[in-house]
Each structure stands twice: as C-alpha cells, then as structure tokens.
Amino acid sequence: MATLLAAGALRAADTDGAWPASVERLRSYLRLDTSNPPGNELRGALFLKELLEREGIETEIFEPEPGRANLYARLRGSGKQPGLLLHHHIDVVPAPPAGWQKPPFAAGFVGENVLVGRGTLDTKGLGMAQLEAFLDLKRRGRPLVRDVVYLATADEETGGRLGVGAILAKRAGWLAGIGEAMGEGGDVETIVDQARWFGIEVQQKGALWLRLEAGGAGGHSASADASGPAARIARAVARLAAMEGPVRVEPVLERQLRALALVRPAPEAAFLRQLATEVARDPEGVRRRVAPWQRLLLSDTVSVTRFGTDSPAVNAHPRTAWAEVDARLLPSTSPDDFLAAVVEAIADPKVTVRVLLSAKGEPESPETGLFSIARRVLRRRFPGAVVAPVLGPGLSENRVLRGRGIRAYGMLPFRVNYYDAAGIHGRNERMRADWFVEGVETVVQLVREAATGQGPAESPRR
Prior knowledge:
Blueprint: H1 21-30, H2 42-54, E1 60-65, E2 68-75, E3 83-89, E4 108-110, E5 114-116, H3 124-140, E6 148-153, H4 164-170, E7 178-183, E8 187-191, E9 194-204, E10 206-215, E11 219-220, H5 229-241, H6 251-260, H7 266-273, H8 275-281, H9 283-289, H10 292-298, E12 301-309, E13 316-317, E14 320-329, H11 335-346, E15 352-359, H12 370-381, E16 386-392, H13 397-403, E17 407-410, H14 418-421, E18 430-432, H15 433-452
Parallel strand pairs: 3-6, 3-7, 7-17, 9-16
Antiparallel strand pairs: 1-2, 2-6, 4-5, 5-18, 8-9, 10-14, 10-15, 11-13, 12-14
Helix pairs in contact: 1-3, 3-15, 8-9, 12-15
C-alpha cells in the first residue's frame, strides 16, 4: 500500500512507474473502453480477475450476454456478522473525445497532479479503492468476522438488466449472507482543499423511464398536419416538461439539511434548519429559494431526454414519432400513481406511454453498522468534517440491494471539488492522483475495521 502523500508530492508523468501502484492500476483500468452502449465489460472483468488471482484469490465471471461480464470474489469469515459487499460497475457512459483535455481513455495527466479519464469518479476509481482494501485483507491474513465479497458489475449505466438484475436471477448465491454493502453514491464538499462535508447515501429517489410513441399516415409536409405523430409527441413532451410535483421534505433530507447547516453561513444555516417548516407554510416559495440541487430532492422531476421519427427528410411528415422521458421520484411517490399523472397530463389517447424502467425509492438504510464505521473513519481522517446521511438523486445498484433487505450505503471516499465533480457524465472526468491515494487508504481502513471488527492501531490524519 502506498504511503499517504501530501498534496503536490506526486510527480506528474505519462509513463508507468512514476506513481504508486494503486494509481498505475487505476490508469490501466481507465484505459479499457467499457462505454455502455455497447458495454464490453469483459475487458474490465478480465483485468480485475488477473489482479485478484495473482494474489491467490479465486474469482468467477458471469456473462449473461457475450462480452457483458460481471466478476465475483469472496473472502470467507467466521460468519459472526452479516457479509459485507464491496461493489462498483465496470461500464461507463460514452465519452465523445471532443472537448477533452486528454483522450477520455488514455488516463493521462493535466498539470502536476490531475488524472483525466472516463470512469475516474464513476466508478472505476471507487472500484480500484475497494480492490486495494480487498487485497489488503487477503495479505494481512487476519481472521474476519464476516465474509467480504468483491463484485464488479455490467450495465449499471443503462439500468442494470445485465448486471445486478442478471446476478439476482442467475447467480443469487453470489450475494448469499450479505447484510451490508458499500457502493457508489454520496457526496463530498471540498473547499480550498479542505474536506468539510461527507454525505453517505442511505436512500435514493426512485425512477420512471418512459417512451412516448405516436403513429400516423405520413405524407408531404407542405400540407400542415397538427394531428400527425411528430406534433402529438411535441405537445406531449411539452406538457410533461411543465409538470411540477408537490414540494415535500423526506425524513432523510430533513436530517441531511440540518447537518449541512453546520457548514453553511448563518443565514443559509437558519433557512436549512427551518426548511421543513417553511415547506409546510409556503411550498412554492421554498421551490423558488432553494439551490437547484436541493430542488431536485424536494420534488419529483421530469427530464425529456431523447426524440426521434422515422422520417428521413425535413419535407415529409413521419409515420411514427417518439420521445423518451426520465422521471425521478421521491421515495414517498408511487411510480404507478405518477404514471397515471403522466397519462392525464398528456391527455392524448393517440400517444402511447410505455414503461422502460420502474424503480421505486426503497426504504432508507439505518445509520448503524457500516454507516457508523464509515462516519468514524472519515471523522478520524478528516478532523472537523461533518459526516451525515443523504438522499441521493441518482439511480444506482444500491436501490436494488435495499429492495432485497441489504443495508446499502453510497460513499465517495475521495476529496473532490466542485469543478472535478462536474466531469461525471460530462467532459474531462478527473480526480487528483494524491486524493485518490488518500481515498484508497480511507477505504482500506474502513473495510479493515468492518471486516475484522477491530479499530486501528494508529490514526493517520490529513
């Protein structure tokens, strides 16, 4: 394990050997293009398999479809505590190279210390930190109070049908005995290199992905056709884009905002502490006042993401038209009820609404067990940082695990600033290399304490 390095102490280079082993392994992983679609997760699974089996750890690869691979490994413990799952996804969102400072699958450096590459934060960086922790348990050989499973999955970015979904259907034994899980999610706030906030995701919003479809006769567009499929879809998506759900404060969000008030200026802190009361008094006023990310967590949202027709020409009415919609729902919102509201808002029986994905917001995971260990480790390593539960606006495999009764926690164990976080699903996804090394050590300590039931002999700090 590399020694914790001070900021700026690492030396930038684009050749192997200039960085700690954990960074070089991450760079090798980032160079594997596992964009989904099409996925090609087998590339990543075989890479991880080699690293694990080099250490004498048996692995298994499962391909529900050719090339769409999931990898599994398990270290056995005494069973005194429920098993611990360390999971991340191999696939990444596509990365068109235009606008990137370095090619998205080159794992190059910008400046002194910034590693650029698709998957750095979502979620190959987390996966490699978990791998280092998993290998640490094997090398130390200490008795474990629980089984520890390392799982790398396919297809998360498009819903998980070939990943966790296929595993539950065809390899359910991989998750046998698992009681807690650490995966992607959560957030961190780093101001002038100081981490002052870590949010551990204990619950997520639900999701409803919809496809709207309409058909007609087609024909020459010189003849206006307000009832044609393109016009119908255009009106339908306009109505959905205008939908605004009621403002509600979920219990997790109320605790999240009260904790966040501890690191905010006094006027904002007072507003955050009283937000639930303000919502009851003036919900629309709150909607106007809060920050955009807070607005996402206070209401159901609708995003229109894709359009299309079968027409190859601008001067021809299409025979078919379609659009796709991504709705994110508060945990207290029923997907079935929201779907009924969508149909009512469209108010056009000639527009068909097809459900692509329906995922309700599962019950929250408790602030005990792995959550308590993570909070203790983060506070020890980052004195003064606030660590609190958060409601996640995104969709990940954690929601599937929670639906199976597994206590799942989304964690971002690295210091990440606002500008670097903007690269997730965007251009120039990146992370400082020394902060990655630091995050590896955080995960190693967390997993070691959770797996052995013992605290550290020493308390390294930043």
